[in-house]
Design brief:
By secondary structure, the chain is mainly α. 66% of the residues lie in helices and 0% in strands. The chain folds into two domains: 1-45, Homeodomain-like (Arc Repressor Mutant, subunit A); 52-208, Tetracycline Repressor, domain 2. The longest helix is centred in the middle third of the chain and has 30 residues, at 124-153.
C-alpha cells in the first residue's frame, strides 16, 4: 500500500506519545512504518517540516472562533484550548514551542490571541505583543507541567537537597506545596494576571493614543 502523508504524521505522533520527542528519529519512524527512510522524504524534505506538520495536527481546532462574548472570557477560552491541545500528546508543548521558534507552524492560534487583544481595546501593535506574551506563557507553563509529570512518573522528582550547602527540605524553597498541587491552579492564576494586565493597558491613555 502506498505511503501517504497522513500515514507519516500518524506514525510520528504514535512514536512521540510512546517514546517522547528526543527519541523521534526518521530512522525509527521509517522502521515503524515498514519503509526505507528515503520514502519519508518524498513527503517531508527534512525532520523540521515533519515536526511542523505534527504541530499543526496537535493544534487543530485551537484557532477556531471562540464562543465567549467577552474578550477576557475569550482569552481564557483560547489559552485553555491551547494548553489542553499541548497536553494531549507527550512533549506536545516542547514540540510546538520549537516549531513556533522556527516559524514553521501554520496554525493561527497567535492570531486568535491578537484578535482578543484588539477586542479588549488594544491597538494592534500592543495586541501583537500581548499575543506573543500569552503564547510564551502557555508554552512555558505547559513545558514545565509536562516535564514535572514525566519526572514524577519515573521517580526523579524528589525533595533531596540540591547541594551539600542545602541542609533541609525547607531550604529548597517555599513553593513545594504549590508545585505539588494542581498545575491548573497555577495556570489560571497566571492567566488572570495576564488578563488584568491587558485590562489595565487598554484603559491607559498611552494605549489609546
Amino acid at each position: 500500500m502506498q505511503l501517504r502523508r497522513n500515514d507519516v504524521i500518524d506514525g510520528a505522533i504514535a512514536i512521540l506519545d510512546e517514546y517522547g520527542l528526543a527519541d523521534l528519529t526518521m530512522r525509527r519512524l521509517a522502521t515503524s512504518l515498514g519503509v526505507q527512510p528515503g520514502a519519508l522524504y518524498w513527503h517531508f524534505p527534512n525532520k523540521q517540516t515533519l515536526l511542523a506538520a505534527m504541530a499543526d495536527r496537535i493544534l487543530v481546532g485551537v484557532d477556531d472562533p471562540v464562543k465567549a462574548e467577552r474578550w477576557d472570557d475569550g482569552i481564557t477560552e483560547l489559552a485553555h484550548r491551547l494548553r489542553n491541545a499541548l497536553l494531549s500528546h507527550r512533549d506536545g508543548a516542547e514540540l510546538v514551542a520549537a516549531t513556533y521558534a522556527s516559524g514553521m507552524t501554520s496554525n493561527l492560534a497567535r492570531e486568535s490571541f491578537v484578535g482578543a487583544g484588539v477586542r479588549a481595546g488594544l491597538p494592534r501593535p500592543y495586541a501583537e505583543l500581548a499575543a506573543y506574551s500569552l503564547l510564551y506563557f502557555v508554552l512555558g507553563h505547559t513545558i514545565d507541567e509536562q516535564s514535572r509529570a514525566q519526572m514524577k512518573a519515573i521517580g526523579a522528582l524528589t525533595r533531596t537537597p540540591a547541594s551539600p550547602d542545602t541542609e533541609t527540605a525547607a531550604d529548597l524553597g517555599s513553593d513545594h506545596d504549590l508545585l505539588d498541587g494542581d498545575p491548573r491552579v497555577r495556570f489560571d492564576f497566571g492567566l488572570r494576571l495576564f488578563i488584568d494586565g491587558v485590562r489595565a493597558r487598554a484603559a491607559s491613555p498611552a494605549a489609546r493614543a
